[in-house]
Design goal:
By secondary structure, the protein is of the alpha+beta class. A hairpin with a 5-residue loop joins strand 3 and strand 4.
């Protein structure tokens, strides 16, 4: 993907059920269903407001929601990045990096020292992004153990 000029965005922490957050998660789901050719491509529990207490939305200066992401605390410590998504029209403009940095800062404020995440085999763009941003590939964890589609990453903050 060619880099385009950076898109100025604000990152706002919102409730999980915020309408813009919900619309972005639905758009992500539709894209992933299309990439994988099915709707059962994510092992484990679906994120909810209760399990994902930190959720952010990136908005353009004209108030258009273009990306999102959340943090789900893990029982064994650390947190999992969930529902990272940038609308295709806003990709390649630094929005995903802005969201990731905001989530990392939220994690630090919560005392989280290690972030983990799961992406999938049909998301090479996501794998390149996380590797570029300093995340290291790890063995699948939790519900992703044994999943043929899961690719997992971690980063110590």
């Amino acid at each position: 993907m060619t880099r385009r000029p950076a898109l100025a965005v604000t990152i706002e922490r919102v409730p999980f059920d915020d309408p813009a957050a919900d619309a972005l998660r639905r758009a992500q789901r539709a894209e992933l269903d299309e990439r994988y050719g099915r709707d059962d491509h994510e092992p484990g529990a679906v994120p909810t407001a209760a399990s994902t207490p930190v959720f952010v939305v990136a908005r353009t200066l004209s108030d258009v929601a273009v990306g999102c992401g959340g943090l789900r605390p893990l029982p064994e410590g650390g947190a999992e990045i969930k529902r990272m998504f940038v609308h295709p029209d806003a990709r390649g403009q630094g929005v995903s990096t802005a969201i990731l940095r905001a989530l990392e800062e939220e994690a630090r404020q919560l005392g989280v020292e290690r972030l983990v995440l799961e992406t999938g085999t049909e998301q090479p763009d996501a794998m390149r992004f996380y590797e570029r941003e300093g995340y290291e590939r790890i063995e699948p964890f939790g519900p992703y153990i044994g999943s043929e589609l899961s690719v997992c990453y971690a980063r110590t903050l």
